[in-house]
Amino acid sequence: MQEILLQKTILIVDDEDGVRESVREVLSDEGYRVIDTADGTRVLEMIRDEKPELVLLDIWMPQVDGIGLLKEIKNQEPDINVVMVSGHGNIHTAVTATKYGAFDFIEKPVSLDGLLTTVQRALGELPGASEHKKIGARKTKAVKAAAKNSSAAPMVKQRTLKKSVVLSGQGLHSGVKTGLILHPLPPNSGIQFTGISADVRVPAHLDYVGSTGYATSLRSKGYAVGTVEHLLAVLHSYGITNLLIKVQGEVPIMDGSALEFAQAIEEAGIEEEDAELAPLVIDRRYQFDAKGGESIFIEPAEALSVRYLMSYPAPVGDQEYTYHHRDAESFKNEIAPARTFGFLRDIAKLQNMGLANGGRLSNFILIDDEKIVNTELRFADEFARHKILDILGDFYLLGRPLCGAITARMTGHSDNIALLRQIRDGMKL
What we know:
5-stranded parallel beta sheet; 23 strands; Rossmann fold
């Protein structure tokens, strides 16, 4: 009897008998007390009587509207975590559900591994996914390696968010309306991207870079996510080391800058975790020179700094900016507001390549041969600052906060990634 009392209770709400049966069997085998119903009208009564720690709620049921029921549950029992389940889900539905208090959103057919991972997170238990284990092992190895380095910076606390946060927007290159859900993760999880289902998780790591044409994308096992650099720059600058990012296809471009991402992180709040991480301290000079004269190098330094130089015909002209990273506030004020830019003469070329389909006058600085077409600049050197934003994001693909001085001239994502690979090989990361 004591063992039963200690079991955590999970309520399954689904009108499909087969779904309830299969999920009930899996969760029961894992030691949970499982109750279920096909009748959405009984859910609130069952919650009052059975006091479950977690509700798995089908979003589409004959008797009730799943989103409406979610609202009622969170209104009456705000401490109960609710995971929404749907066979007709998309990122917009997931974002809506999360806004109304859902802990997470998973797709049918339900992946058993993905289900267990989500349940464990919702109940405050460590996820057991294999990718999580690999990431943790890699971080442990990195910590040990840094400890042997006499020049290593002091260990820093790992960080995640205090609560989940959602954002909506449009993909710059896909043109598709999309959303973003950020979930806290336990120590040593790393930054991970996934779709609506939890089947595949792609670590934000150099090993998973898919393409670097006009944006940085990550790929693994059939799942790909594009334009990750602006969000990663924010996570780098705010010291967020553990986070699950749910997104379908492409991270939304927002207003072309990283400011809304920074504001969302601050709104959610940052939680220091009971684990430490060694910053990556650059041990010597690494340099990459491209055939077109572009160059980027990094040298040892006590802190992170980025200097960017560019030279374009008017109206861009010659620009140079040096950013010394002091804290999140310095990033938010100096770099986060700087927006993506492009030239009118390149638009047709990009669209023929299937890119920039989501470019709008509100999320893109558009430049013709004589002037900036659609907006006032936020900084006189906004273009150079935006390049620094991209670099900060790409360099977080090394998996750890960075100590080093970066200097770049006329470089883009491909050059950044080429230098990162040199660092990885040279430092045996």
